[in-house]
Amino acid sequence: MIRINLLPYREQRRKAQLKRDGIGAGIFLLLVVGLLGLFYMHLQGVEQRHETRVEYMEDALAKIKDQLDEVNELKDKREALVAKLEVIKKLQSGRDLPVRIFRTLGQAVPKEVSLSSMRQKDGGLQLQGTARSNNVISSFMRRLEASELFRDPDLQVITNQGKGGQTLKSFKMGVNLARKGQKAENGKEGG
User: Phi first, then psi: what are they for 118, rounded to 5°?
Assistant: First the structure.
């Protein structure tokens, strides 16, 4: 006899297949959610490490800015000190200038020349006086030129004056002060 199965076996097979597929999908979904959770935690750790590194860099940058401010302040103080030292050096170098001017003039003025006025002007002197002759004035100018302190004597005015039966020459001249090292250069050029 032929047996006929009236049970809906196909439907049971379909339900079993759906149940297996559901379980498989559920397991797959749990795996995906678990992997996403692990990935999220990894990203959180990376983010936290980056935030920590950024905070460290910001702290280091703040320290460097403080040090840079200190360095700039020290540079400003140094520049101010250098400027003060330059002023002191300039004052020290010019301290003995009047003594040197009088000593050099005393050596350069011939006996026949009488100075009546001496004024300091920009970078030099303005001299006025009388002499017995033009040759004496010329000798005075050569002596000034030969000195280490003066350069470029310039005779501006010379006039005749009669005094006590003698004819005297009244003169006015300018002479520049030589800067350090300038006399040596002039000597090399002339030789």
Answer: -145, 120
Residue 127 in 3-state DSSP? strand
- Would you write out the chain's pLDDT as a tens digit for each of its 191 residues? 677 766 777 888 889 999 999 999 999 999 999 999 999 999 999 999 999 999 999 999 999 999 999 999 999 999 999 999 999 988 887 777 888 888 888 888 888 888 888 898 877 889 999 888 888 888 888 988 888 888 888 888 888 877 666 778 889 999 988 876 554 444 444 44
- The size of the chain, in residues, is 191
d(CA 93, CA 86): 10
Whether the CB-CB separation of 87 and 135 falls below 8 Å is answered with no
Q: Cα(43)–Cα(38) distance, rounded to whole angstroms?
A: 9
Angstrom distance (rounded) from CA 141 to CA 16: 132
β partners of residue 126: 119, 174
Sheet holding 166-177, edge to edge: 113-121, 124-131, 166-177, 150-163
Look up the pTM and report it: 0.50
Report the amino acid identity of residue 50: H
- The candidate with the shortest Cα–Cα distance to 130, out of 111, 152, 150, is 111
Gap between the Cα atoms of 84 and 90, Å rounded: 10
* CA–CA gap between residue 30 and residue 137 (Å, rounded): 118
